[in-house]
Amino acid sequence: MADERSLDPDDWDAVRRLFDAAIDRSLGDMRQVRKRPVWQSTPEGVRTSLSEPLPKSGCPLEDLLGFVDDAMRPYVTGNTHPRFFGWVHGSGNVAGVLGEMLAAFMDCNAGGRDHIAVYVERQVIAWSKELFGIPSSASGILTSGTSMGTLIALAAARSDRAPADVQTLGLAAAGCRLVGYASSEAHGSIGKAFALLGLGTQALRKVPTDGDFRMRMDLLMGMVDADRAAGLTPFVVIATAGSVNTGAIDPLADIGRWCRSQGLWLHVDAAFGGLAIAVPEFHPALAAIAEADSIAFDFHKWMHVPYDAGCVLVRDEAAHRRPFASRPHYLSSYPGGLARGEPWFCDYGPELSRGFRALKIWFTLKAYGMDRISSLIARNCAQARALALLIAGMPELQLLAAVSLNIVCFRFAGGLLEGRLDDLNSGIVCALQETGVAAPSTTRIDGKLAIRICLTNHRTIDADLQILVAEVLRLGRAASR
Ligand SMILES: *Cc1c(COP(=O)(O)O)cnc(C)c1O
User: Fold this and answer.
1) What is the DSSP letter of 54?
2) pTM of the model
3) Distance 401 CA to ligand 1 centre (A)
4) Among 144, 250, 294, 298, which is best to mutate for testing ligand 1, by the most ligand atoms less than 8 A from CB?
């Protein structure tokens, strides 16, 4: 049966009441977040209730909202909870949510042309350059995250440094093997980018780290020399500003200076740690980001912009554009009208259609200001140091890495043999998550399984860390009895 009504509602007032109800419930949920379990497993019944054939006809919005209440809202990741400490997650904010909702109403496509979403994104990029001290002539684009930002930056680096037009002719035309370097603590997204760019993951050399998990400059230099002697072509170094395991910051200034002397492109993975540049105490360690050829970082981590929101900045605009700018006739720009307004963002990345991601970032920065955001970053770092002290004072707990930023890696080691500790500590983490008390993650430090606490959470208070430590002790003692 043909139904040729537009998708607009018949009764706008009724829809308005539904929006009110949806917002009431969502705000109520965020306000009460501390009272709920950090995480709970999505029950089998809920999972199967999603399973149905492609809907042929519609159902009332009320029913869908009810479904969200019953079957979705309770089973979220949990990162808005003050005791979510796992991986590296932001914890959300209401200003960002408002921006996201308004952006959905405006429904802009920020791939290019002349309209407000493009101008807001350019402003957010300008603020990002200002934050990192990167020249205003640099280019940038908002991305889904640092993984995509790094892929874009490395595509620019590859085209810029390859000895042939690999853009047109393909990598084989380079007639050499391009290789790059990152520390052994670098993020997995860099290897993925190497694979996607046709370089191969083996072309990413892993440089060992020092006792503080920072890239060893002397070993980097030796590896580049050895690769050159073997006939390979080093082209890029990826330094980490805040490693995912321990928050380590590579010696950026030394690496940058040396890369310039060697004609190597320096990319900085500043996914979360980079934002600590706004904290005076960390500024010296991060200031050299200003000298990098490219940097990728996230707004959805330590700035708490609702997912997803990342960014890549590239010092040389022409190099940034080279891998991406080729527009067919149907995407020509015009000196006037809507198709005006060069440069287009689609010339800075692989995606043509892109949402108004900038608005939730603009809202977050305008609503709180960078000072307030950086105070919360500083508070997380202070909490990490306090937690490390607390752990150091407890004989049953063992700190596994020095705290350099906001991450604490430790384990319960009370009187047990080494061989049992990995299982015991992974069991503790599972129990913390499954009881909904807290959500840390795990990693390995020098081969030992660590309970990993990452503080990128503006809702965490000291009492949350005390609850965490008390629960780890209780679970550890019970399991080792
Ligand atoms: C999270 C993270 C990434 C990947 O960023 P996404 O936004 O998840 O794509 C890369 N590097 C580091 C250090 C990270 O913490």
Assistant:
1) P
2) 0.97
3) 20
4) 298
